[in-house]
Amino acid sequence: MKIVVDAMGGDYAPIEIVKGAIEAAREFEIDIIFVGDEKKVKAELAKYDAGKLPVSVVHAPEVIEMGEPPAVALRKKKGSSIMIGTKLVIEGFGDAFVSAGNTGAVMGSSLLGFGRVKGIHRPAIASVFPTIKGFTMILDIGANAECDPQNLQQFAVMGNIYSSKILGVDEPKVGLLNIGEEETKGNPLYVEAFKLIKQSNLNFIGNIEGRDITGDVADVIVCDGFVGNVVLKFGEGLARDLMSMIKEELKKNIFVKIGAALVFSQAKGLRKKTDYAEYGGAPLLGVNGVCIICHGTSQARAVKNAIRVAKECVEINVVECIKKSIGERLNGDD
Amino acid sequence: MKIVVDAMGGDYAPIEIVKGAIEAAREFEIDIIFVGDEKKVKAELAKYDAGKLPVSVVHAPEVIEMGEPPAVALRKKKGSSIMIGTKLVIEGFGDAFVSAGNTGAVMGSSLLGFGRVKGIHRPAIASVFPTIKGFTMILDIGANAECDPQNLQQFAVMGNIYSSKILGVDEPKVGLLNIGEEETKGNPLYVEAFKLIKQSNLNFIGNIEGRDITGDVADVIVCDGFVGNVVLKFGEGLARDLMSMIKEELKKNIFVKIGAALVFSQAKGLRKKTDYAEYGGAPLLGVNGVCIICHGTSQARAVKNAIRVAKECVEINVVECIKKSIGERLNGDD
Question: What single-letter DSSP state applies at residue A172?
C-alpha cells in the first residue's frame, strides 16, 4: 500500500511530517510517497536511515500557506503539494492522501479531484474526540458552514460506517447535537434532521446536548460544520486554558508545587487520553478517495497516527462501505 | 428596592433558594418577595431569624416543572410562581424577578409580561463565562434557536451595555463567534452579522473562534442561541469530565494521592474562578423589565449572587440603557 504524504503542510513541516511518516513506514509496512520541495524533503530524509525504507519523493514547486483563501490558492497553485498529492492518488500512484496543510485547500482539492460518492451531497470532516471513558466521533467539524437536514442525515450514515468499521464500535450510538432532548427542540434544520435520521435504520439515540459530548453518551455525534467547528476549537481552547490555570494555581505554594510534580509525573494516562495526536487525523468522508486531514499543529506522532488511519481506511475500503450504506439506508439519489 | 424571587424554581427549591435570598437580604439591603407555596416557603423561613428581615411571601398555588414544555405550561398554569412572580414586577410590587426555574417558561413569561424594549426584535440570555484571566460574556445562550443578522447585531449592542455597565468593563471588546477570523468566514448569517456589527459603533474586534472563548480575547461574545447553548453546556460538561478524569488518575498511586490532596486544598482560587455560582444568574436582555435566570442547579450562593446582579441591573437601569443605546447605535425600528 502506498500513502501519499504532504511534506509541506502544517506548522511543523517538513521536519515533523517526515519524522512521523518515517516512523509509519517502519511500523506499518507501507510505502510513503512524500510530496513537496524535493531538496528540503531529502535533507530531512538524510537524518534517517531512510535508504532501506520504501519511501520516495515527488517534487512539488509550490506550497499553499495555512492562511491562504483555499479557492484562490487551488486555482493559482497547481504545483502545490496539496494539488499534486491529490493527483497522485487520483492517477493510481498512491492509495490515500494525508495532509496537515490548509484544511480548506485539502478539502477542496479532494472534493474536486476525487469527486463525491454517488448519493452523498456534501462530504464531511469527522474528528475523534476524547470522552470520560474513551472517545466519540463528531461530524461535521468544518467542511460545511451551512447544511440542510439531508446533509445531517448523510453525516449520520457516514459517521456510523466510520465508527463501526474503523474505530471498531459495535452498533454505534448515533446522537444529534441539539439544545434539548425532545424531538421538537432546536431550529428547523435540527427538527427536520431528527426526523430523517430516525428513519435511517441506525442506532439513533435522539438528541444529545453539549454537556453529553464528553460524557460517553453517543459514539457518533452529528452536527453542522459551523457548530462542530466551534465545539472542536472551544474544546481545545478550554482544555489548554484549564491546564494552564491549574498550573498557575500550583505555583503559589512550595508544598503544592511538590504535590503537583508528583501528580503530573503520573498523569500520563490522562494526557494520552486527551491528546489529539493519539487519534491521528480527521477523515474527509463522502469523497471517492481516502483523504486524512491533520491538525495544523500536528507533530510526528499525530502524523504517524494519521497515516495509520489512512491505511485502515484503505484496507477496509471505507469509500465502498459508504457507497453501499448510503444506498441501503437512504435510497440515496444524486 | 424589592426583588421578587421564585422560591419554587430549580433543582434545590425551595431550600437553597430561600437560603440564598435570605443571605442577599442580609447583605444587600434589599427587600425580598418570595413567590411560591406559602406553607413550604414559610417552613424554610422558620429556619432563619427572618422576622427581622424585610422578606414577605406571596402564595402561588402552582409550579412549572423543569421539564415541562414552556408554552403549554404558561397557558395552563396562570397560578405558577413564574407567572405570578413576573406579574408582581409588572404591577410595580417588585423591581426585578429572579428565578432558577424552567428557563423557557421564565423567558416566555417575561417576554409576554414585560414586552420587548422598543427596537429590540428578540431578547437574548447572556451568561458570564470564566476565562484564563477573568471572565467574558456570551450571548445568546439559548433564547433564540434561530436568528437573523440583525438579531446578532442587537445582541452585540446589548452585550456591550451589560458588560460596561454591570460588569464594569471599560470599552468592552466585542467579538463575533465564527469558524475563522476573516470577514468572509462562516455561513451567510454570520457574514451578514459581521457587516452589521461593524457599523454599530462598538469596540468590535471582528470574528473570534472557539479556541478564543476562554482565552480572554473578547469581553462580549456574540452568537446565535443554538451555538451559544451548545457551547455553554459543552463547557460545563467538559470541565466536569476533565476534573473527574483528573481525580480518577490521581487515585492510582498513593504518593500522587498525597500530592493531589496538597494541590486540591490550595486550589480554591481556581475553583472560585471556574464556578458558575460566583457570577450569579444570566440576565434576559431586551425585555422591558429586569429578569435574571439562574441555572437549574443553583444553590444558595448562586441565588444570592443572582439577586445581587438583579439589584445592580435595577440600580443602573439596564433597561433604559439598552433602550437608549439601541436608538443611538442602530437607529432601531420596531
Answer: P
Residues 105-164, chain A, touching B (beta carbon < 8 A): 131-132, 142, 145-146
Task: Give contacts of B 294-323 with A, CB under 8 A.
Answer: none
Q: Are B149 and B187 in contact (CB under 8 A)?
A: no
Contacts of B244 in chain A (CB under 8 A): 132
In the numeric block, which cell numbers belong to residue A75? 486555482
Which of the residues B133, B179, B224, B264 would you substitute to probe the A interface, choosing the one with the greatest number of A C-beta atoms within 10 Å? Answer: B179
Give the side-chain half-sphere CA count within 13 A for B328.
Answer: 11
Candidate from A226, A252, A263 with C-beta closest to B259:
A263
Nearest Cα of chain A lies from the Cα of B211 at a distance, in angstroms, of: 4
Measured distance CA(A40)–CA(A35) in Å, rounded: 11
For residue B26, the SS3 value is: helix
Predicted structure pTM score: 0.89
CATH topology of domain B1-120+286-318: Isopropylmalate Dehydrogenase (3.40.718)
Q: Which CATH number fits domain A126-278: 3.40.718.10, 3.20.20.140, 3.10.290.10, 3.30.160.40?
A: 3.40.718.10
Contact of B187 with chain A, judged by CB distance below 8 Å, is answered with yes
Beta-carbon contacts of B235 under 8 Å, excluding residues fewer than 6 positions away, are: A210, A234, A238, B129, B213, B214
Per-residue pLDDT tens listing for chain B (334 residues): 999 999 999 999 999 999 999 999 999 999 999 999 999 999 999 999 888 899 999 999 999 998 888 999 999 999 999 999 999 999 999 999 999 999 999 999 999 999 999 999 999 999 998 888 888 999 999 999 999 999 999 999 999 999 999 889 999 999 999 998 888 889 999 999 999 999 999 999 999 999 999 998 999 999 999 999 999 999 888 877 877 777 776 666 666 666 666 666 655 555 555 555 666 789 999 999 999 999 888 899 999 999 999 999 999 999 999 999 888 776 544 4
Instruction: Give B324→chain A minimum CA distance, Å.
Output: 31
E strands, chain A, in order: 2-6, 31-36, 55-59, 96-99, 124-130, 135-139, 174-177, 204-208, 220-222, 282-285, 290-293
Quote the minimal CA–CA distance from A190 to chain B in Å: 10
What's the fold here for domain B127-279?
Isopropylmalate Dehydrogenase (3.40.718)
**B226–A260 CB contact, under 8 Å:** no
